[in-house]
Design goal:
The protein contains six helices and seven strands. By secondary structure, it is of the alpha+beta class. The protein folds into two domains: 42 residues, no CATH class; 132 residues, GTP cyclohydrolase I, C-terminal domain/NADPH-dependent 7-cyano-7-deazaguanine reductase, N-terminal domain (GTP Cyclohydrolase I, domain 2, 2-Layer Sandwich), CATH 3.30.1130. It catalyses: GTP + H2O = 7,8-dihydroneopterin 3'-triphosphate + formate + H(+).
Length: 203
């Protein structure tokens, strides 16, 4: 196999060169002749992309809540169908779907709706398991908002399932995490589940 030359563009100073070299070695170890295939730039592109995919490792979701809003509200608050894209840590393939969140404010303290999407995005930009991702969001809500209760439901489609197993191509995974007054088994938790799943593809 012809040795390929590592591609180093002029603006590559911010890209992890160790990751670029490792990706080149990995592709060549699988039998790809990068020069013959016109893939000389691929190791750089992959290293740059995964630097973005894993940028959440360098961020604290707590910083995304901003200042909490003081209200008189003591009712359930729900944010549904937040889109996310993440990377499964088992095969480094994408999984994606939606996050729905319900919480009970503590003494009327709430956050602007856009902050929920920001927190989800930070946690999604890490190597993840869907179960941990769900629990991480629930913890971020309960700690960041000092909520009296929280319920998080994640519906995800995993390419490691659909690409490696044709029978699983139409499958998705549903996970939940809950806390406090919305904990699993409570009447409030059951009502919150119904609210978040209303109109979804699952009963």
């Amino acid at each position: 196999m012809t040795d390929s030359t590592k591609y180093t563009p002029d603006h590559a100073s911010g890209v992890n060169q160790k990751a670029v070299q490792a990706m080149q070695d990995f592709l060549e170890a699988l039998g790809l002749d990068l020069t013959a295939l016109g893939m000389e730039k691929t190791p750089y592109r992959v290293a740059e992309a995964f630097g973005q995919f894993f940028s959440g490792l360098r961020e604290d979701p707590k910083a995304r809540w901003g200042s909490l809003i003081e209200t008189e509200s003591n009712g359930l608050v729900a944010v549904r169908q937040i889109r996310f894209y993440s990377i499964c840590e088992h095969h480094l393939l994408p999984f994606f779907g939606t996050v729905s969140i319900a919480y009970c404010p503590h003494e009327g303290k709430i956050a602007g709706f856009s902050h929920f999407a920001e927190v989800v995005d930070v946690l999604a930009r890490r190597p993840q398991l869907q179960e941990r991702f769900t629990a991480d969001i629930c913890q971020a809500v309960t700690e960041g908002l000092q909520a009296d209760g929280a319920l998080v439901i994640v519906q995800g489609t995993h390419l490691c399932l659909s690409m490696r197993n044709r029978q699983g191509s139409d499958s998705d995974i549903v996970t939940q995490a809950s806390y406090g007054c919305l904990a699993e088994g409570t009447e409030a938790g059951r009502e919150a589940w119904k609210l978040l799943m209303k109109g979804a593809n699952h009963d």
